[in-house]
Specification:
By secondary structure, the protein is mainly beta. The chain has one helix and five strands, in the order βββββα. The relative contact order is 0.19.
Length: about 80
């Protein structure tokens, strides 16, 4: 799935679970849904991570350390 423009975008992944995160440049996240559906997400530069409670972090997959990027594993 590709999105036009610069965003922000809301991904149609309600009910999906993240089962794989690859920490390399770029940062790859794969979410899985019902009936084997999957959604690979590649983050190559700066992005805003918004958690379910509304908290947000500004991150950059091309410039920050793995320790900083580990925030994608937990909601802010």
């Amino acid at each position: 799935m590709k999105f036009a423009g610069d965003g922000p975008w809301e991904l149609p992944l309600v009910g999906f679970e993240v089962l794989r995160v690859t920490f390399a440049h770029p940062l790859d996240i794969v979410a899985y849904g019902d009936e084997g559906a999957s959604a690979p997400i590649r983050l190559e530069g700066s992005f805003e991570l918004i958690g379910p409670a509304g908290g947000s972090l500004q991150l950059d997959a091309s410039a920050q350390t793995w320790e900083d990027l580990a925030a994608v594993l937990a909601a802010p």
